[in-house]
Design a protein that fits this description.
Layout lengths: L3 E2 L1 H15 L3 H18 L7 E5 L3 H14 L5 E5 L8 H12 L4 E3 L9 E5 L11 H12 L3 E5 L21 E5 L2 E2 L5 H7 L1 E5 L7
Parallel strand pairs: 1-8, 2-3, 2-5, 3-4, 5-6, 6-7, 7-9
The structure holds ligand LP7C6HRI and potassium ion (K).
């Protein structure tokens, strides 16, 4: 699918698939996580010690599902959560419950990232709705300053998915696995500076 779509289109396609077609949101999340995990497993990533930097929205939920999919394949993973579990979306709460079963460590977000060989950026996706400031900016700057290779989930965190403009601190990814369709930001010169290699995963979401 070469079409690039807007955030509004992505949300419409998502809602249409869940409400009209009847595919549950967690199924979409699982397919997204499977697609991204496959890129990590088949790409040039040192998976010795993987960090999933997860937000509390569904972008974070994707990342937490990726953590589990890597864990069951014997990969050492740690999840850093940017907010309180109580603030997590319904789907992300469910993904946290699942990784608790596997005893995958979930620790508060931190800037000490020196031990990690690959960092999965699952802080914000298409839900970024204001400039990145404060502790989020500190974390994103730490991710960009680390020696780890960075892999972004759906959209590099901090990048406006429509305009391709960084909204303050923005993750510079080695590669990005985006879901359903390419987003408008990936067509812009600015967006390309943050995205790295772009993969678009078919997750069963189609514009009507
Ligand atoms: N069909 C699909 O495309 C699928 C997409 N999935 C994933 O879901 C995210 C979108 O999830 P959503 O919960 O709507 O938003 P985010 O997780 O991107 O982030 C929202 C979260 O963050 C807060 N926030 C926004 N801007 C800021 C800021 N500058 N500072 C601090 N906090 C901020 C906001 O309030 C929310 O709480 C999509 O990208 C995909 O990764 C599905 O999982 C699979 C199907
Ligand atoms: K992201």
């Amino acid at each position: 699918m070469t079409t690039s779509i807007s955030v509004a289109d992505a949300r419409r396609a998502d809602a249409h698939t869940i409400q009209d077609v009847g595919i549950p949101s967690l199924v979409l999340m699982e397919r997204a996580a499977l697609g991204a995990t496959n890129r990590l497993l088949t790409g040039d990533y040192d998976l010795t010690n993987v960090l999933i930097f997860a937000g509390t929205g569904n972008n974070g939920g994707d990342g937490i599902a990726i953590a589990r999919l890597l864990h069951v394949r014997g990969v050492k993973v740690t999840v850093m959560l940017t907010g309180d579990r109580s603030k997590a979306s319904t789907e992300t709460t469910q993904q946290l419950k699942i990784i608790d079963y596997y005893k995958i460590p979930v620790i508060p977000a931190d800037i000490n990232l020196g031990d990690y060989t690959t960092i999965v950026d699952a802080i914000f996706g298409v839900g970024l709705d204001r400039p990145v400031e404060g502790k989020f900016a500190t974390w994103i700057n730490a991710i960009n300053g680390s020696n780890a290779k960075v892999f972004s989930v759906d959209v590099p965190s901090g990048l406006n998915a429509d305009t391709g403009e960084p909204q303050g601190a923005t993750v510079k990814a080695n590669a990005t696995s985006s879901f359903a369709y390419s987003k408008k930001c990936f067509d812009t010169a600015s967006g390309k500076q943050y995205t790295g290699t772009l993969f678009v995963e078919d997750i069963g979401v189609y514009l009507e």
